[in-house]
Amino acid sequence: MSELRTDRLLLRRWRESDLEPWAAMNADPEVREHLGDLLTREQSDAAAALMRAGFEERGFGWWALEERATGAFIGRAGLDVVGEDMPFAGVDVGWRLTRSAWGHGYATEAARACLAFGFEVLGLPEVLASTTVNNLRSQAVMRRIGMTRNPADDFDDPSVPEGPLRRCVLYRTPAPRTARRGA
Fold first, then answer.
1. What is the longest distance spanned by two Cα atoms in the chain?
2. How many Å apart are CA 45 and CA 18, to the nearest integer?
3. Nearest to residue 62, comparing CAs of 45, 81, 44?
4. DSSP notation for 65-90
5. What is the Cα gyration radius of the chain?
6. How far apart are CA 140 and CA 162, in angstroms?
7. How many CB atoms lie within 10 A of CB 1?
8. With bands split at pLDDT 50, 70 and 90, how would you rate the model's confidence at 36?
9. Angle separating helix axes 19-26 and 41-58, nearest 10 degrees
10. pLDDT tens, residue by residue, 117-140
11. Kind and range of the H or E element at 64?
12. Residue 91 host element (H or E)
């Protein structure tokens, strides 16, 4: 499926025109606060290329996020296979929005669309989400979309050096009963 639609959002495949606003997001210290170093344009373009390739390979991944009313690129949202270096396995839901798109409920709306796709189309038994222990905004989205946290699942991200971004929380949500019956 190449795109998902919600009342206000279009989750779609990446376009060349997304690269500039994507790079601006990755150079914004507020957007990157819980993600690590700012990215150069080259690093940002490489990340977009990896997202495109992952989508082609699996048929799902990170969609570009567009505000339907204006056609503006406002970030990304999607599903991704958890990296092999992590202390857990599964499929992760996530989002990253431009600063101007924060506080409008877009992350929650996009995440719900991604969960529905994961459960109804992919037949996933569970979806995960993780973030740094201090990223309270993302944790609030995780709770709003029905995910729960068991502190025993919290972990140190092995890809992050010692510091405030290393300790992470893990949230989970099982497939709804109706989706599980059909799987």
1. 46
2. 10
3. 81
4. EEETTT--EEEEEEEEEPPTTSSS-S
5. 16
6. 25
7. 10
8. confident
9. 120
10. 999 999 999 999 999 999 999 999
11. strand 62-67
12. strand 91-97
Half-sphere exposure of 4 (CA within 13 A, CB side): 25
Residue corresponding to tokens 């970030």: 75
Q: Which of 114, 168, 123 is nearest to 146 (CA)?
A: 114
Q: What is the dihedral of CA 73, 112, 146, 36, to 10 degrees?
A: -30
C-beta separation of 19 from 45 below 8 A: yes
| pLDDT tens string 58-97 | 989 999 999 999 999 999 999 999 999 999 999 999 999 9
Residue 147: what residue type? Answer: M
How many angstroms separate the CA atoms of 23 and 160, rounded? 21
Yes or no: say if 102 and 140 are a contact pair by the CB < 8 Å rule.
Answer: no
Burial of 167 (0-12, 13-18, 19+ CB in 10 A): middle
Q: Which two tokens stand for residue 150?
A: 């068991």
H-helix or E-strand containing 46? helix 41-58
- Residue found under tokens 């210290």: 29
Distance of CA 63 to the CA centre of its chain: 9
Is 172 exposed, middle or buried (CB count within 10 Å of its CB: 0-12, 13-18, 19+)? middle
